[in-house]
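Tip: read the tokens left to right.
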């Protein structure tokens, strides 16, 4: 039986994370903002597929569903979509194999129960999804930075695996309350660079906003390094809210937020959502990170 919150949220016409089909207005966004056209979609996918199949030493998925993610992320520019795909698999298999190819699966699974990263059950008014990252739930004495970054990557790719997210975009809500010197010591410069790649030009995602909540002086110092590598466009989408829920609600609807952020969702359990959504996606994630460029 649906809870009162679920009933009220559906009544207000907020879309759930998973939908059986794309609504008419979401398809209008795809057409107007992403240049997606039903008549030419298949042709663009086939052009991208040919580039991928011709790429030397690259072994990865070439099905329509997968390639469409990259086309939507780059507004149906085949060349830019291909570059994004190349970058993703270069990061996986060449630049950071220790984080992705050699990741400890058991450690990643154990992070599911920590509630470090979860996807909110309902979408924002414009159809965008919210990925919640709670730094304070990461215990660096139990899970190192490699596990943390691989897990966050799994959560991000889980979010953008959904077609509505590919079209409407994503808000990353990063609650940095509880960030300590122990976290900073784990996040070495090369890992901060990887974070910047994840925000800038690697995954097939359209960021609508990056919201930093409860940012401490320690975290602001760390973020200043990441900030250097971001584009001007992405920098403009980074919002420091301190601890102001009023500021946060200007970008993310109160109706879909958990109560700890001044929202209406009193049933939200970050660990439960993480286990359900990211846990179910994990096999696909592992298949993805073990694809990429192979060395003969």
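Filled-in amino acids:
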């Amino acid at each position: 039986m649906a809870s009162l919150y679920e009933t009220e949220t559906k009544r207000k016409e907020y879309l759930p994370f998973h939908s059986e089909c794309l609504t008419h207005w979401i398809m209008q966004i795809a057409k107007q903002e992403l240049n997606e056209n039903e008549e030419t979609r298949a042709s663009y996918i086939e052009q991208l597929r040919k580039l991928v199949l011709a790429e030397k030493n690259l072994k990865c998925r070439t099905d329509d569903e997968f390639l469409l993610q990259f086309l939507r992320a780059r507004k149906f520019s085949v060349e830019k979509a291909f570059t994004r795909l190349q970058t993703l698999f270069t990061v996986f298999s060449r630049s950071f194999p220790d984080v992705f190819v050699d990741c400890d699966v058991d450690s990643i699974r154990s992070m599911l129960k920590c509630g470090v990263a979860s996807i909110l059950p309902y979408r924002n008014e414009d159809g965008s999804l919210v990925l919640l990252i709670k730094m304070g739930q990461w215990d660096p004495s139990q899970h190192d930075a490699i596990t943390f970054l691989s897990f966050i990557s799994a959560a991000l790719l889980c979010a953008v695996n959904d077609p509505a997210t590919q079209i409407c975009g994503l808000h990353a809500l990063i609650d940095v309350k509880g960030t300590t010197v122990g976290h900073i010591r784990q996040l070495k410069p090369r890992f901060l660079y990887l974070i910047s790649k994840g925000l800038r030009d690697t995954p097939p995602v359209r960021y609508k906003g990056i919201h930093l909540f409860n940012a401490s002086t320690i975290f602001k110092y760390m973020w200043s390094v990441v900030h250097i590598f971001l584009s001007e466009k992405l920098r403009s989408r980074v919002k420091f809210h301190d601890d102001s829920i009023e500021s946060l609600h200007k970008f993310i609807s109160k109706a879909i937020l958990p109560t700890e952020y001044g929202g209406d969702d009193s049933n939200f359990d970050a660990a439960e959502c993480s286990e359900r959504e990211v846990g179910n996606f994990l096999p696909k994630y592992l298949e993805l990170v073990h694809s990429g460029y192979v060395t003969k």
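Residues 270-289 form the longest helix (20 residues). The mean pLDDT is 93.
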